[in-house]
Automatic annotation (TrEMBL):
UniProt protein name: sulfate adenylyltransferase
EC number: 2.7.7.4
InterPro entries attached to this UniProt entry: CysN_GTP-bd, CysN_II, CysN_NoDQ_III, G_TR_CS, GTP-eEF1A_C, P-loop_NTPase, Small_GTP-bd, SO4_adenylTrfase_lsu
Residues forming coiled coils: none
Keyword Phosphoprotein attributed: no
Length: 416
């Protein structure tokens, strides 16, 4: 069964917690004991209704206990698919959380309060979703009950959002009018909006095409471990363990190793002592090569017929995630795949205004949650693909050398 990983984004009070609760409740994904607990907690309410937001708020207290920092994950499944919901808090200052949670999501639900329409946070979240290359966006127009389930209100919001989506590089946008509180068009079809003949949210989540999004062209294998048994009778054995982050590899394929540029062919592909003729993303395997090549952890094995860029000066979109400022001349460790090297900041080409999408030039420093295009100079060449063609090998992070904390998320653009 396939897996859809999606993020929910919206301003505080747009109804994110209620929506997640509704999705789990109506799709019968809530465990009996959880249900009992929220029923008990909801008893104090005057209307006797179950407060679905309590479910997600339960998750948030887990988060506060430090089980997951900043972002909470919730799993559920229907007969059609498995789902992971990434729940990022909605406050303005949490761009960082959305970036952390969303980098490998296939879909983002952007909540819009029907009464307020497209808001500042809608623009911010949509910009981040587009920078992160999330291929599917659902604009969930919530609280339709508070605007009399009006088709006109819904249409206006769709038109407004479509203008914004045009400025961004968002591939697929789906609009759904709903009331998370009353359960309209979340799992069950709304009787109050007969004018809407599209899918409910769950139907969409269950059927949205995600296979096409997998990059099968670019065989990329960042080496995590070199396996060299010490036993004499296995002296010829040398395997490279890691995860295929994109594409596929077959026995007999010509490969190139980066950064050295050495070449060889694949002699065997192994998973738990079973030999395979081919393997593809996201499998974790051990590769064996026909010849003795000098490979260490952090190297990138690629199929020779499709090679990545390799450079010491790179352009990238940066989401700055630290309270210390980012400035030209600062030094960090850059990690792409399993490869790490030191780097310094050459230039801040421009900062992006997250509301108007304007490029602000002449910026000297970045603060927490700022988004910018930057140029970095690395100590050793890095091998990568533009993020827009390959999210796995085009994403990188900046690490503070002294604290070892991740301070920036990078979407690599190309050579500078
Ligand atoms: N009328 C109406 N109220 C809703 C709907 N969805 C959510 N609400 C209410 O809006 C308020 C905020 O909902 P939450 O689900 O807590 O909002 P949130 O976006 O998760 O907010 P945070 O958890 O603080 O980020 C609550 O009082 C909900 O009951 C809806 O479809 N219609």
């Amino acid at each position: 069964m396939d897996l859809l990983r999606f993020i929910t984004a919206g301003s505080v009070d747009d109804g994110k917690s209620t929506l997640i609760g509704r999705l789990l409740y109506d799709s019968k994904s809530i465990l009996a004991d959880q249900l009992e607990a929220i029923e008990r907690a909801s008893k104090s309410r005057d209307d006797g209704e179950i407060d679905l937001a309590l479910l997600t708020d339960g998750l948030r207290s887990e988060r506060e206990q430090g089980i997951t920092i900043d972002v909470a994950y919730r799993y559920f499944q229907t007969p059609a698919r498995k789902f992971i919901i990434v729940d990022a808090p909605g406050h303005t200052q949490y761009t960082r959380n959305m970036v952390t949670g969303a980098s490998n999501c296939q879909l983002a639900i952007v909540l819009v309060d029907a009464r307020h329409g497209v808001a500042e946070q809608t623009r911010r979240h949509s910009l981040i979703a587009s920078l992160l290359g999330i291929p599917h966006i659902v604009v969930a127009v919530n609280k339709m009950d508070l605007v009399g389930y009006s088709q006109d209100v819904f249409s206006d919001i769709c038109i407004h959002y479509a203008e914004l989506a045009q400025k961004l590089n968002v591939k697929h946008v789906t609009y759904i009018p709903m009331s998370a509180l009353n359960g309209d068009n979340v799992v069950d079809r709304s009787e109050s909006m007969p004018w809407y003949d599209g899918q409910t949210l769950l139907e969409h989540l269950e059927t949205v095409e995600i296979d096409d999004d997998a990059n099968l062209e670019q065989g990329r294998f960042p080496v995590q471990y070199v396996i060299r048994p010490q036993t004499p009778e296995l002296h010829d054995y040398r395997g490279y363990a890691g995860k295929i982050t994109s594409g596929q590899f077959r026995k007999g394929d010509s490969i190139t190793v980066f950064p050295s540029g050495e070449t060889s062919t694949i002699d065997a592909i192994e998973i738990a002592e079973t030999h395979l003729d081919e393997a593809f993303t996201p499998m974790s395997v051990v590769l064996h090569l026909a010849t003795d090549v000098d490979i260490s952890r952090g190297d990138l094995i690629v199929r020779s017929d499709n090679q990545p860029l390799s450079s010491q000066t790179v352009k990238a979109m940066l989401c700055w995630m630290d309270s210390k400022e980012f400035k030209v001349g600062n030094k960090y460790v850059l990690q792409v795949g399993t490869f790490r090297t030191r780097c310094s900041v050459r230039e801040i080409a421009y900062q992006l205004n997250v509301n108007t999408y304007e490029q602000i030039e002449g910026v000297e420093q970045l603060r927490l949650n700022d988004l910018a295009k930057v140029v970095l100079r690395t100590a050793q060449p890095i091998s990568f693909d533009p993020y827009t063609t390959n999210r796995a090998s085009g994403g990188a992070i900046l690490i503070d050398e002294t604290s070892n904390v991740t301070v920036g998320a990078l979407m690599l653009v190309g050579e500078a």
